[in-house]
Structures are given as structure tokens and as C-alpha cells.
Specification:
The chain is α+β, with helices and mostly antiparallel strands. It has ten helices and 18 strands. β5 and β6 form a beta hairpin. The longest helix has 22 residues. The protein is globular. The two termini are about 25 Å apart.
């Protein structure tokens, strides 16, 4: 465990933001640079086959040390951080024995992580935690997962008395922009099942996620001098506002929880002449998911009827689906994670993911891959933090999963 925190602090020094506007894989060169570093580290701890392919995927194998046929298990985490906030020049700070009070991240700018705003902070009271300086995200999503996987594998290598089957490792690019497994080599990976180590609060197991779609909307207006624009101007900005107003106002992320789906306006940019909108559409239930997409299509059709054909152009694309249907036939892998957590002194609990992971798509590609905790919270922003105590527990859980699967 001594290397766990050092490893994590080194990892977050790499700026690995992904870029949804890029057409390359990985979407940013800096992810590839981080991948190259990870390959060297994996080789140093004893995984001689560690490699990074031309698309930025890192693969490695820890051979089994049992003489019977046992499952090949994979552990997966992603290298990129969210494009929503900078991951450059991260300055982490360790707070020992967190007392449960508000945390001042930057006194000069009065940036305070408040327990009132984030009551989940109390789940790590008494823990040693790592926070940001209020200027960047931390990168625990998902560099905590990478650090935990590498540390667990290093522990297994140093303790050959722990019997385990073959373990496959993969670190993926571009998960945050929905492309994490676009070019994942399923045959090369060769796992019977896997776990993405990309969750949050200690003990969480997730095998239900949103069905997901993206909606890219272009609104074509007509710009005329406002002094002589009567019956001529079509203000694309106002049409964009009208479109958004036609969607259910209570079905947005800030109004929903648990299994409730939503429409999320992620970005809006425009002028009178042209406006671009970007939405994500989410729902755990497949039927409701299809109805949400249908509502978006009907809204666009109505506005085109009102303002003229071609005024509103919709590009609607499915991104991933709920992995539940692929996990339920193999629930023993959930039981395996539960048992490992209990043995590590962690209280397991199952809850739905209000998002998606690489595991969601991998489950439909032939590798059932539920998600387990890392200990990080408040992802994608300056209030992100991670519990060192929970990170250590995650390492124990990974080791126990590998050990128990070989029994």
C-alpha cells in the first residue's frame, strides 16, 4: 500500500483531458503519453507483455499461478479526465483524519467545499482524503482506479502465495466522451468477465446504467437588420430557447435521481444566423428511453413545420445501453464482488449508475463488466476528492476477487 498514494499523486500530474471535437483515437496526444508511462511502470513491476497500441489502449497480463481451469478476470480503468474542467497543473492536498467540517480549497478566492452542499463528505469523516486547490479537477476519475489496479497487481506479484488465475488489465482512452471502447480489442483482452474500477463511494457495486443517446441540433436562422426585420428575421437563438422550453422542465439532471431519466442541455452556442445545441438523453428503462428520443424528434418536426423545413436539423445517435440485461445471466460475478468486499471489511451495496462506463458497452461486446468503487467523489469539477482509506480498501477488494475466483 505504500506505493498507492505516491502512484496516484504521480498519475494526476499528467493532464489527460479528452476532446470530443477531435476525430483521432485517442482524442488527445497527452493521453497516449500517459499510457506510455503506464506501460513502463507495468513492465517494471513484472508485467513483461505490457504494451500500448496505436489507438492508445494499454494492455497487460498477470499469468495465473494455479494448475486448474479458472476464469480469466479483467480489471479496467480509463486514462482520460473530463473535458468539462481543466486537468492541467493539478495541485492535490492531503487532509489527514478529515473532521467532517467545510474545507477551504482557496482562501483568496473563497472557494469552499461545503458539507451543506456536499453532505456526502460526511461518508469519509475520519479518513485521510485528497482534495484539489479549487482551480482544477483532481483526476480521481479514473486515475484512482488505475492506481488501485496497478497496486493490487503489484501486491499479487510480491505475494505468490496468493493463488489466482490469469488477470487481464486494460487502461482505455476517451471514456469521458463516450468512445472508451470504440477500438477495444476484445479478442486480445481475452477475459471471461471484467470489472471496471470506476465507481465512487466505498462499497458501491453497479450493474445497471443509463441507456444513452446524444442529440446534436443545428438551428438555421435568417439575420436581417433589426430595424427592417419584420416578417423576415428568424432568430435561431430564440428558436433554440423555444425548443428547450418544449422539453419537460422537471426532467433535467438537477431535478432527477435514482432511476429517473432526463434531457440535459450540455452546450449552446450561436448567433441570430445559426445556433448549435448539444443534448444528452438518458433513461434506465429502454421503453422510456425510446419515448424520450421520439419526443425530441417530434419537437424538431413541430419547429420545422412552424418555421420552415430545414430550420432545425437533428442528429440523434445512440451511445450505449443498460448493461443489466447482460449481467443478470451471470450474477455470480456480482456475488464475487460482494464476497470480496465483505472479506475486506467493506459493506457492499448495489445501486444504479446515473451515467455509463466502458463496462456498459463491453458487456454488449461479450465481456460482462460491472463497476466497482474507487473511493472518489464529486467527479468532474473542482470539488472532486478521494478517500485514501477507501482507495486502500479497493486494492484489497481487487486482490480478494482474484483470489476467490481461483478457489
Amino acid at each position: 500500500m505504500d506505493n498507492l498514494v505516491k502512484r496516484f499523486l504521480k498519475y494526476v500530474s499528467f493532464d489527460t483531458q479528452s476532446d470530443e471535437n477531435s476525430e483521432t483515437c485517442p482524442s488527445t496526444r497527452k493521453q497516449y503519453d500517459f499510457g506510455e508511462y503506464l506501460v513502463e511502470e507495468l513492465r517494471e513491476i513484472g508485467l513483461s507483455d505490457a504494451e500500448i497500441d496505436q489507438n492508445g489502449y494499454v494492455y497487460a497480463t498477470l499469468e495465473g499461478n494455479v494448475d486448474k481451469n479458472v476464469p480469466v478476470i479483467g480489471f479496467i480503468a480509463h486514462m482520460d479526465t473530463s473535458p468539462d474542467m481543466t486537468g492541467a497543473k493539478v495541485k492535490p492536498r492531503i487532509i489527514e483524519n478529515y473532521d467532517g467540517n467545510d474545507i477551504v480549497l482557496d482562501s483568496d478566492k473563497n472557494i469552499v467545499m461545503s458539507v451543506k452542499t456536499f453532505p456526502n463528505m460526511l461518508t469519509v469523516k475520519g479518513h485521510d482524503i485528497i482534495v484539489t486547490d479549487g482551480a482544477t479537477l483532481l483526476g480521481a476519475d479514473d486515475k484512482a482506479g488505475i492506481a488501485e489496479i496497478v497496486t493490487a497487481v503489484e501486491y499479487l506479484i510480491k505475494h505468490p502465495e496468493i493463488r489466482h488465475g490469469t488477470i487481464k488489465i486494460a487502461f482505455t482512452p476517451d471514456e469521458e466522451i463516450g468512445r472508451g471502447v470504440d477500438l477495444f480489442n476484445v479478442d486480445k483482452f481475452g477475459a471471461d468477465f471484467a470489472y471496471t474500477v470506476d465507481g465512487d463511494i466505498e462499497g458501491r457495486i453497479e450493474y445497471e446504467n443509463f441507456n444513452a443517446a446524444s442529440a446534436k441540433i443545428t438551428i438555421n436562422g435568417v439575420n436581417v437588420h433589426p430595424g427592417s426585420s419584420k416578417n423576415k428575421m428568424k432568430n435561431s437563438l430564440l428558436i433554440a430557447m423555444e425548443l428547450n422550453g418544449m422539453l419537460p422542465p422537471a426532467e433535467t439532471p438537477s431535478h432527477t435521481e435514482n432511476y429517473e431519466g432526463f434531457f440535459h442541455l450540455n452546450s449552446m452556442e450561436g448567433t441570430v444566423e445559426k445556433t448549435n445545441l448539444s443534448y444528452i438523453i438518458r433513461d434506465h428503462d429502454k421503453t422510456r428511453f425510446e419515448k424520450r428520443k421520439e419526443l425530441m424528434e417530434k419537437t424538431v418536426d413541430f419547429l420545422n413545420y412552424k418555421y420552415g423545413c430545414g430550420t432545425v436539423v437533428l442528429e440523434l445517435k445512440d451511445q450505449y445501453y443498460n448493461m443489466k440485461e447482460k449481467i443478470e445471466p451471470v450474477m455470480h460475478i456480482i456475488d464475487l464482488a460482494r464476497e470480496a468486499m465483505e472479506q475486506a471489511g467493506v459493506k457492499p451495496f448495489v445501486s444504479p449508475i446515473r451515467g455509463g462506463t466502458d463496462g456498459a458497452r463491453l458487456s454488449f461486446m461479450g465481456i460482462p463488466a460491472p463497476n466497482i468503487f474507487t473511493g472518489g467523489q464529486n467527479y468532474h469539477g473542482k470539488f472532486e476528492f478521494v478517500s485514501i482509506n477507501s482507495m486502500k480498501k479497493a486494492v484489497e477488494v481487487i486482490v480478494k476477487i482474484a483470489e476467490n475466483a481461483a478457489k
